[in-house]
Task: structure prediction
Amino acid sequence: MAADFDAPTQDLSSNGRVLSLLRPHTSRLVAVLVMLVLLVVADLMPPFAIKLLIDDVFVDSPLALSFGGRGRLLAALLAGLFVSYVARNSFFYISRMRSLQVSEDVCFSLRKRLFDHLQQLSLRYYRAHQPGQVGARVMDDTYKIQSFIQDKFPLLMLNLLKFQILVVVIFLMNPRLALAAVVILPLQFVIYRHFRTPIRKSHSEAQENLSLAYGNLVEKFLGMEVVKGFNAEARESETFNRAIDESRKSQIKSQRFHFVQKIAADLLVGLGTILLIAYGAFEVIKGNMKGGDFMMFFGYVMMLYPSVLEIISGVGHSSKAVASVNRVFEMLEEPVRDGLRTIPPEDLAAIHGGEIKFTNISFAYEDAPQVLHNISLSIKPGERIAITGPSGSGKSTLVKLLPKFITPSTGSVQLGGVDLANIPSRLVRKEIAIAFQEVFLFNASIYENIRYAREDADIDAVREACRLTGADQIITRLPEGYETNLADFGAELSRGEKQRITLARALLKNTEILILDEATASIDRGSSRAIMDSVFQRMQGRTVLMVTHETHLLDMVDRVICVRDGRVCFEGTPDAYARYEPAAFLSSPISKDDRLVEPTMKVNRQVSSAVHLDERSETKQSPPHPKDET
Result:
């Protein structure tokens, strides 16, 4: 099945884009055209049979005598009609089946290409576009393209061929009468030109409004807990009603142009039919034409006019299909920063478990103040690092630079001495496992959710990862265990239980670098410490970056980095950090098991309150959209 789309997508015209979709299927399209030509020839038989019936069967004629009488001529005529109808339907079936195969292949290949391309786009693209909008283009626009190729394209080509053949035939029969019949056709072209642009524009607008409405619908369903929590059902209904109302108005506007165009075209057909009957009757009365010849001529013209209307209608549908093609190619032409390029083998070896360096890193989210300011850090292979600090200080932003979820505004991030800017994202992320701050589980079994990190992992490897995080005890209590399907993204589990599962998923990947972004924030203090002890044992000799507010975990790491207002304000051992920031430990529940507690007890609680007031005044939230991501 041809589906490679070798033609480049950049800078193609609308027609070029359509041709790029059809080019891999040229041989089958040629077969369709051959069948359509034969179908047009078969369609010419009934008017010709009527001519013979009137001029040679109803009256004696030399042709009837050559057949041995009018009865035999009639029998031959009926047999010929039967054969023509059998042939006609055979040509129709073959042409439509070929068109169906082409349309299905184009739609399949286009959706696959879109999905593969979308997975390579930056996270910024997904933050700028609603999931429903993206889904509408992948499914709805490609379906419109498929429907056009399957249904409208063969009909359009059939009528174009029929139009050309019929024009030649009627001019060969009677040039003067043919001229009277086709005099209205230039006016049909004028009507088409007049309505083409507004039909295409209004259809594109209708499709865009529909995708916006769909995006609004999906977004609200995903956030239904928030909607219900704030009693916002009526407000959201009003918002959705406005969205679908805009789509409704655009659809009506698009169809109104289409209907007016058809009416204008049909009125011209009526005018042409009147002229033809008047002039043809005059020719027959004068004896310049036989009655049978005129009926055949009239039959061909009555086939010609509808073909013109179908051509105009088909071109209108093609305008809609072209609008969908353009919308799809807008996504395909969205730039992919590093694509599938490769790097030298020595660089690939260097990044495997290599040293991490942040050099003069600054970063600003799009249209927002700077979040990180001139940060320089070095993290040795196998080192366990805790990154802490007030909320909104830039901790999560800093670790997002390593897997290239965002790229720095200035400065560089290196892994094994190789600048990440020169490494494809997929190769960087292959070296890193991440337990995200925002928990996300797919609507699939627990086993499939955990195995998502490594699809070749068996059930034993999955169980081992879950035992390390305590998820195994939770899962085995469920009626179907690891085969339990998680509906609504794991809504039946608590946030802490979901964190254990997502942490197990990260451990299963078994990489040289592990990033934990508040990975145990929703798990109780004692359990989170036990989990982290198991994690650090599993990651012995490998690098761990742990973003956390939990001070009871800090004595488990080699080094603490404190980030405040986008700057590194402290870097040192856990004991040194306890002396530097004693108030942070006084604000947490104190346990005799925590080695860091003793130094903090000497600090006056009044100092603690002052420090907390200062922290709250300096805390800020990161803007929602990054400036640059891959």
